[in-house]
Amino acid sequence: MITKSIKQYILTASVCCGMAVATSSCSDFLDILPMNEVVLENYWTEKSDVLSVMNSCYETLEHNDAMTRMAVWGELRSDNVRAGANVPNDINEILKENLLPSNPYCKWAKIYECINRCNIVCRYAPMVQAIDPNYTEDEMLANVAEATTLRALSYFYLIRTFRDVPYTSQPSIDDTQQYIIPATPFNDVLDSLIHDLERVKVNAVRRYYVDDSPNAYQNSCKITRWAVYALLADLYLWKGDWDNAIRYCDLVIGYKRLQYKEMLEREGNVNDIALIDSVPMLLTKPVGSTTCGNAYTEIFGNGNSFESIFELYFNSTQSQKNTWVSDYYGNNTNTLGRLSCPDFIAKDVASGSNTVFKRTDGRAYESTEYASSSYAITKYARSSVNYDTKSVTTEKDLNLSDSRRSNNDANWIFYRLSDMLLIKAEALIERGLDGDFDQAFMLIDIINKRANDAVEGSSRKSTLTKSDYIDSKGAMEDLLLQERHREFLFEGKRWFDLVRFARRDGDNSRLVNLCSRKYIENVNAIKIKLADPNIIYFPYAKDELKVNPLLKQNPAFTNGEDTELNR
Questions:
Q1: CA 242/CA 425 separation, integer angstroms
Q2: pLDDT tens digit sequence for 159-173
């Protein structure tokens, strides 16, 4: 895409024949022309050609190389994870904050492959629409919006990980093109992504199928207008545009209210969803049930839940598998994966001695399990969970039972309703107008009430006391980060949260204090290392520096093995 090392993954032939969903027209075309004589214009003749490449954009993100990197980049350096069983050396070095440009997780080729395929859709879809009468303008505009959003999501991962990255919206369509370009600054890329999404948002599909259709999953596993709004809310949060972040969160929350109203009109009664302070949320304990676990099972076990906005779709019959969950979190054979949870997060929750979770907070029991002298990660690895927190003082009181996945088919969630509530809460805290702290606290408390089964009709009260936080912006920020930590544990968001606050704070103190909690050895040395404002971003891979002389290495990584490359 940008350099030869990336382009080798995305040559014209791979765009056509590398798709699992390739249509017969693509196959016939490749049978006729030699691989080195493929002319893309001969391929882009009908609607099905566009849809094939559009589907391949999703498949590229589902690929193990992309899926693993998105999780590693967003989770591994945070305070959430430690080494588990049989951890690979490359992963272990990152866990120890011994990150070098030779580490394979510094490579970004698969993410740029998705970007390039999205660029190709944006380039050729209008041409196809002009010649295929069965491909309407609305369909074409929706596909361009879809590709533009996946491209923006991909770039968003790159800038949060590397800060400044080579940026282009032009496709690489033959092997003669040269993309030796410098890195574009973080803020410039961010502005470009926002501009692109603002331009296409109204063209995105609002709903693919009605909610009771067998194909309703596509409303959360394909880009809809609500996914565009969710991504825009996140982008505006990183930009520091609080009003727009709030506005887009409100649009998605409003849509979820509408969906809930439609469900009530259609079904008459919904036992496992209820309004919590005016926001419809899946209940951890459905009406009439005596046990908890419903919200977890629906969101992470079944996938495509009422609360989902956008997630990658995996199933047992497709070739792409979510091996990140099965290898690094655990599966039905190995409870302890390659990663584990630090003790301070999971230990002594039931006794009430834990500093992260209250004893009634089901998220602790849903997400971790003591195994092999460590705390195993169970979020996503479990397909269902059932427990009782009514009178919990020890873990035995929970009477916890669960089912684990036998297939590597856990969907991976990018955005769900909780994101919208907490992005809005953060924007309100940072805006700080009269009443903003009160509203932010209410949104945070909605998430916390659901997790602790302190909803209407329950005998429990909220575990949060407003007066403890409401008079201080710092206290509200801490509360927000704490709730995001509890809610999005192991979902690939924690490191990015800490980076966002470090950028806003202008120093890494908060990040250093939180991340150092998981370390047992070399704690002071790691604290000193993490204090460098440049260290919170990954280095560019050695291969990229070799082929692109316009890339300048992150100054935190210019010593040692890459000194010669950066002179």
A1: 10
A2: 999 999 999 999 987
Distance CA 84, CA 342 (A): 10
Closest to 387 measured CA to CA, from 405, 369, 412? 369
Confidence (pLDDT) at 37? 40
Name the phi and psi angles at 391, rounded to 5: -135, 50
pLDDT band, residue 214 (cuts 50/70/90): low
SS3 call for 27: helix
How far apart CA 295 and CA 276 sit, in angstroms, is 14
Report the range of poorest mean pLDDT among 24-38, 367-381, 531-545.
24-38
Give the relative orientation of helices 494-505 and 137-162 as an angle to the nearest 10 degrees: 70
Strands (E), 11-106: 82-83
Residues 6+ apart with CB under 8 A from 398: 350, 365, 387, 388, 389, 392
pTM greater than 0.85: yes
Task: Tell the burial category of 456 from Cβ atoms under 10 Å away from its Cβ (0-12, 13-18, 19+).
Answer: exposed
What is the length of the chain? Answer: 567
Q: pLDDT category, 4, cuts 50, 70, 90?
A: very low
Residue 564 has pLDDT above 50, yes or no: no
The rounded Cα 105 to chain-centroid distance in angstroms is 17
Q: List the structure tokens of 203.
A: 């063209």
Q: CA 87 from chain center: how many Å? A: 23
Look up residue 321 and give its two tokens. Answer: 């598998």
CA angle 246, 250, 255 (to 5 degrees): 155
Three-class SS of residue 222? coil
Element (H, E) at 375: strand 374-377
**Are 429 and 477 a contacting pair, CB within 8 Å?**
yes
pLDDT the model gives residue 173: 73
To which residue do tokens 């460098």 refer?
532
- Give the span between the Cα atoms of 67 and 82, in whole angstroms: 19
Token pair listed for 119:
């660029």
| Owner of token pair 């991976």 | 412
Q: Report the relative pairing of strands 339-341 and 374-377 from DSSP bridges.
A: antiparallel
Helix (H, G, I), strand (E, B) or coil at 532: coil
- Of 478, 417, 466, residue with least CA distance to 437: 466
Query: Pick from 111, 35, 21: which is nearest to 73 by CA?
Result: 111
Q: Which pLDDT tens digit goes with each residue over 382-439? A: 999 999 999 999 999 999 999 999 889 999 999 999 999 999 999 999 999 999 999 9
Q: What percent of the chain has pLDDT over 70?
A: 89
